[in-house]
Amino acid sequence: MSLLHDGDSGGAVKTEARAPRKPWQWVPTAYFYQAIPNTVMQTLIVYFYIAMNVNPRVSGLAVSLLYLPWFIKPLWGPIVDILRTKKWWAMWMQILVGAGFVAVALLVPAAGGDTGRVFVWTLIPFVLIALAAATYDVASDGMYMINLTPGQQSVWVGLRATAFRVGWLLVDGGMLWLVGWAAGEGSAPMSPEMTGAWRTAFMVLAGITFATAAYNRWAFPQDSPREATANVGSIVREFGRSIATFFEKPGIVWGVLFLVFYRTGEAQLLQILPSFFTDSVANGGLAIPMEAQGLIKGTVGVVALILGGIAGGFAIARRGLRFWLLPMILILNLPNVGYVLLAANPAAIGAAGTAGLAAVGGVVALGYFGYGFSFTSYTMYMVYISRGQFATSHYAICSGLMALSLIWPKAVSGFTVTALGYEWFFWMVVVLGTLPSVLLYRRLDVDFEFGRVTIGK
After folding, report:
1. What 8-state DSSP symbol labels residue 155?
2. Measured between alpha carbons, how far is 35 from 18 in angstroms, rounded to an integer?
């Protein structure tokens, strides 16, 4: 049973002599699982360190740096391309992520304990999780690029984004609800109830990881391994060629800037919304219990995000990427005005009771729909400029730039919200999220037909 080299040309690969895998068998779970460690590093870890009594400015800086592996993963993208297969890398990285979640659960103290020590010791497995998860992303993105035709990629981009967001909301909504439910209302940071709830959450995350890995072992397509004689020299040369050819693409400077600035508003929201929802009314927050936050994100958030992702994918398939670039930039950022309105009078939201929670849910739903709909254009643009030779490595570079677009805004968000307060912070998010992308998108040289699917051809 022989394997044939695919050349990483972006086309379909020849696989082992077995029934070929259909996209619906593996694309949803590949991207569903991408979201699990990704969301832990972006949002759940913020709640975790709040519960561990860690200073938000310190944890904000640390969390932003923990996302660094997603930025630098292009450095080892060629290794994933050359050594073994993408399926091999994806499976082992999932196992390492699961082991990391188990380690975090074991390091959470039974109660009390030194906050600084908990912070430092849990950072170690979080670093392991980040490195393994970023490598899993390289491998799974590579499978997507080489196993689907351009037409299939256009159709599946919205659905894969939806699968990613379902995984995201399982963590950001479901795990958050689980912690709030297990700890009980009013549980203090570092209390036995709170620390026990977090141990349970990380064990559940480990269980989800191992269960998904067992399914993916069967479902993932088996791509062809690269040359068995690959050595350090060939890896370095391959890396150099992949970087050089990426920056030789027409208009790439504008493309890089677009990728770096597109998610500026979202990145700051990801870091600050947990504090805004949890903080006391006296401090300008909404004082929403963690369990209620999980319910809001895990119900209306899930539905809105799924609908937005599906709608975005089919919108691009009908009219093409170029047509939707500007509308999607606006749809992504303008709903954030809703957070400005919530921050303007947080006491009224609390006094309104159920109606106040419904108002928060409405803002969350609108924002999540806009995000699900608009992120499709960002993903498709990464696919667009990654086409051709070194498609896997070039997509890794693009997703690394996407990570950079999250790192720098999150790193400064704790300081800016302290200086501005929640209301003016959200105004800043709206402006910085919208203006740079609007100015840059006209400089992007995107084929008007890219992403469009013509029925019957």
Report:
1. H
2. 29
CA 444 to chain centre: 24
| CA–CA dist 358, 350 (Å, integer) | 11
How far apart, in whole angstroms, are the C-alpha atoms of residue 65 and residue 73?
A: 14
Is the distance from CB of 170 to CB of 33 less than 8 angstroms?
A: no
Q: Are 34 and 140 contacting, i.e. CB atoms less than 8 angstroms apart?
A: yes
C-alpha closest to that of 328 among 417, 258, 389, 383:
258
CA angle at residue 10 from 8 to 15, to 5 degrees?
65
What is the tens place of the pLDDT at every residue in 165-213? 789 889 988 998 999 999 887 777 888 889 999 999 999 999 999 999 9
- The angle at the Cα of 244, spanning 378 to 399, to the nearest 5 degrees, equals 25
What is the per-residue pLDDT across 261-283, written as a single tens digit (0 to 9) for each?
Answer: 998 888 888 788 888 998 889 99
Integer Cα distance of 372 and 183 in angstroms: 31
The answer, as to whether pTM is greater than 0.85, is no
Question: Where on the phi/psi map is residue 8: left (φ > 0), alpha (ψ -120 to 50), or beta?
Answer: left
In the chain the domains, ranked by start, together with CATH numbers, are 23-222+235-441 (1.20.1250.20)
Calpha distance 454→155 (Å, rounded):
11
**What are the structure tokens assigned to 362, written together?**
């409405």
